Amino acid sequence: MAPKNSEASTNSKMVMNKGAWTGEEDRKLAEYIEVHGPKRWKTVAMKAGLNRCGKSCRLRWLNYLRPNIKRGNISDEEEDLILRLHKLLGNRWSLIAGRLPGRTDNEIKNYWNSHLSKKINKKEKKPAECSTPQDSITEKTCEAVATGQETVEESSKGAAIPELSFDVNELFDLSTQGTYDLEWVNKFLELDEDPWLAVAEDR
DNA sequence: AACATTTGCAACCGCGTGCTG
DNA sequence: ACAGCACGCGGTTGCAAATGT
Questions:
Q1: Nucleic acid strand B within 7 Å of A6 CB
Q2: In terms of domains, do A138 and A171 share one?
Q3: Domain containing residue A47
Q4: What is the CATH number of the domain that holds A41?
Q5: CA A76/CA A179 separation, integer angstroms
Q6: Could you tell me if A54 and A86 lie in one domain?
Q7: What region holds the Myb-like domain (predicted)?
Q8: Which tens digit of pLDDT belongs to each residue from A120-149?
């Protein structure tokens, strides 16, 4: 996207920049955080010489500049995991993203809204037609989610975690276990947060 | 080729929560 | 106990790119 508001900084009323980030802004932000760490975002914005609000800086850092960020190419396994976790947690994007190393809540949320929600709607409309032995794990998971007792729409409406009225073992009892097995699921709520942020805290 | 529509995603906004003085 | 601030989250918007007509 082309920057639209980069001229805002020249305004004498100090109107904050909005819209797409420029390469120069990214560089300033990354350099400042490299030295001082990702905290006190209001200060970061000012000290880094960015005519941006702290919120904007934080978002840019978390979603794009942070080390070890993965961009695009969400694998079948990741997609499958997103589906399962969404079934379990609802629209708790940060929690879901926390279980997908290198992925951000914003990316997961966007991916859900633009890809997975449509897939699931499709499955809800015609669940019988779509299931073939060749289906990928995500296809199967989509169908499991779409045909489950609790619909995705219901779990998406409220901010609260949907009631765990279903059997977790049943939910995860799909043909492919791989990395995302039951033991992992049972532990996932207890795991600590992003190790990089923990390092940043120590600075 | 030109225009209209849809899609994908980066970024913003408002609100809730936790921390600090 | 309270107010103010900073942070984090989820919902929503805006717009470029892709696709359709």
A1: no
A2: yes
A3: 9-65
A4: 1.10.10.60
A5: 12
A6: no
A7: 13-65, 66-116
A8: 766 666 555 544 444 556 666 666 666 654
